[in-house]
Amino acid sequence: MTAPTPGSEAFANRTVRAEDILDRISPTLALHTVDQDTVDSVDPLNYEVIRHRLWSLTDDMADAMKRMSGSIVVTDANDFDFALTDEVGRTSQIALYNTELAAAMDMAIFWTLANRSDNPGIDPGDMFFCNDPWIGGGLHQNDVSLYMPIFYEGKLFSWSSAVAHQLDLGGVGPGSWTPRSENVYWESLPTPPIKMVRDFEVQNDVQDAYLRRSRMPHLVGLDLRAKFSANMLANRRIGELCDRYGPDLVKAVMRRTMDDAETRLRAKLRDLPDGTWTATSHHQSSGMGDRGIYRIRLTMTKIEDRLVFDFTESDPQSGMINCTFAGLRGGVVSAILPLLAGDIPWATSGLTRCFELLSTPGTLNDALHPAGVCKGSIAAAWGTTNCAVETISKMLDTSTSHRARATSLCAGTAGASVFAGTDQRGAPFVTMAMDPMAEGLGARTYADGVDTGGMICIPKGRIPDAEISEFGAPLLYLWRREEPDSGGSGRFRGGLSGSICVVPHRTANPMAFVYSSDGGAVPQNVGLGGGYPGNTALSTIFRGGDVAAQFARGLLPQRLEELDGRAERLNTEVETVIGTQDVYYLYWQAGGGYLDPLTRDPARVREDVVSGAVRESTARDIYGVVVSGEEADLAATEALRTRIRSDRRAAAEPVSDQVAAWAGKTARLSDIRLSENVSEGDSAGIAVRACTCGQVLAGPGETMWDGVVKIVGAPSAAGPQIVPDPEAFVDAEIEFRQLCCPSCLTALTTQVVPVGTPLPTDDLLRR
């Protein structure tokens, strides 16, 4: 075989099916296979026992990795994952950690089989290292995978893999977050699959070449050994399974798990109505000093038992916020797993048979080399997940039997705050604030989102104890707490997010600092069905404060107003220095709301006010609830909500002439729903779409979104959680936009978006 040369298309991996690389595997590599009859003949008892043994193995791999790693990202935040595949890389199980990382692990194994089986060969005791986002096995260069071919009786039986975020792998910026990046050459070096381990022994020359790039080689080296241990555990356990049950039965169970996942997902899709749903994720600033807004646009179509995710209308790649095709695929899979496969085995190679991905090479979430991708994990890949979560949830909301799985968006991004310098022991350090992993989850169709509940793409994610963060870096927490009003308002509100406030502690030197986030001008935690978006992100350095003097007086500041010094509000891509007297404040995004907040039970609003989740002013202005003491005044609340609807009517303008054409015409509603707010119906023998109040919105050949009224205002109309001056961050004009029923004025969608953002086009299809 001819080896690929650097810069050739061979490194641009788009392989998503093992069948596409079978003829490129060296004939000298013996593969263990079973036929379909063997797969179909597995008895139910053995199937469940072996399947669960493999599933539990991924948790045991996590335990092994956490025990050896010294990185807070691994030991305390669970920003890693594992995958088990068959002999040709088809995934039969991924773990419940960072699913975006593991979802493209198969792509790296496909590439390795196709390009490494001849030279240098794939042998027992090998492990391959990869951090090349264009090949797979991670979203950006900091996501390093180590994966192992597992042999049984001389044949390649399966693969195990471990992938985790590394704190620093070089590049211009500390932590390898590089806001100044213009292309990948400013960033950490991407390395295609290379043999790190031979005959069960780490190769020192390769290890040294890898660790030499890092500012924290001791921690990165520990993580490498931790991944090695996790793979060695998988190698032993799978061998023991084969010894006990026979290799053919174990392999048949792996294959059967994939088939089962496919069959069950297809059955679920067939039970949902066909339709098309759209979503847009707006990204602010593609690099330091940039004030642009960039969008990822998705049109998802569901027909019978298949989904098509079409991202071809996304913006061209720009700066350092891009992700590769592997990131796009990981982003979609990480949305499908919790929303559509919560009761289905997480055998992603079975699930991926049920959908198709369409994208345009050279765009934000299908970037071509040498685009900057160091922020891809929390920018374009995360935006891809956002779009997929939104469209899948809209689809689920059409079904009374499946709507409980729908959710408004969780947070929308994860902000990176990276500190580097000299720690309290005089040693170099690099660390990242992992606190934003406690994001507010999106509101559900039957309950509020979970406050600081985590991330939808990392089911077992967690945050470190504050004391652990302080032990590992010269930082002292003034506070870490949930923030009132941060969750998007709705009949069910989004989960609250939180904030931290930290100061340098026991270090005599300033710290290098990188802030790389999103959502400062346009919230990415959008609501569903008229629910309001959650908060915009905020990051501020208070320069030259008097916190040390307050400490000396026995005071601990607990409010921003108590922090002296000059407030420097940061844009979303910043590389700067934090002085020894500075204070850093970070407020991350929460979950979006579900349905119009004017329909929330006043008793729930009262409970939120009493608990501190919602301020009394927000209860009044957004929810239309009057709280008197610790009780909701129902009569005053009804009068206030009537007035708010009247104010909406006065401010509303029809989207098109269609509003006037159907004015005053009502429909008898059917059981076919487009959402909680809109159903199909009949009006004088005409098939229509109508609001649940009965008002007709659209007839045959019309879209319901042309039959609504639009209210436009300042972004702060969405609530106090939204930054009132987005012009401080971006050049585009940002607006509050609400689309309502022209009769009852119930909100059908509520957004804070750039002016000119297209209206939704969600609709059902006729079979």
How would you characterize the overall build of this protein?
By secondary structure, the chain is an alpha+beta fold. It has 17 helices and 31 strands. The strands form seven sheets. Strands 2-1-5-4-3-6-7 form a seven-stranded antiparallel sheet, sandwiched between helices. The chain has a five-stranded mixed sheet with strand order 11-10-9-8-31. A hairpin with a 4-residue loop joins strand 24 (668-673) and strand 25 (678-683).
Total helical elements: 17
Rounded average pLDDT: 95
Distance between the termini: 48 Å
Query: What structural category characterises the helix and strand content?
Result: alpha+beta
**How much β-strand is present in the residues?**
15-25%
Shape: globular
Poorly predicted runs of 5 or more residues: 1-5
Spatially, the strands of the biggest sheet line up as: 2-1-5-4-3-6-7
Percent helix: 25-40%
State the total count of DSSP E strands: 31
Main sheet: strands, sense, barrel: 7 strands, antiparallel
How much is the radius of gyration in Å? 26 Å
Oligomer: single chain
Descriptive tags:
767 residues, alpha+beta, five-stranded mixed beta sheet, seven-stranded antiparallel beta sheet, disordered N terminus
Give the SSE layout.
Elements: H1 36-40, H2 44-68, H3 72-75, E1 80-86, E2 91-94, H4 99-102, H5 105-121, E3 127-130, E4 143-152, E5 155-165, E6 194-198, E7 201-202, H6 204-211, H7 217-245, H8 247-270, E8 275-284, E9 293-303, E10 306-310, H9 325-340, H10 348-351, E11 355-358, H11 380-396, E12 416-422, E13 428-432, H12 466-472, E14 475-482, E15 498-504, E16 511-516, E17 538-543, H13 547-552, E18 566-569, E19 573-578, E20 583-587, H14 602-611, H15 616-621, E21 627-628, E22 631-632, H16 634-651, E23 653-654, H17 658-661, E24 668-673, E25 678-683, E26 686-691, E27 696-698, E28 709-713, E29 734-740, E30 747-754, E31 763-764
Parallel strand pairs: 10-11
Antiparallel strand pairs: 1-2, 1-5, 3-4, 3-6, 4-5, 6-7, 8-9, 8-31, 9-10, 12-13, 12-16, 14-15, 15-20, 16-19, 17-18, 17-20, 21-22, 23-28, 24-25, 25-26, 26-27, 28-29, 29-30
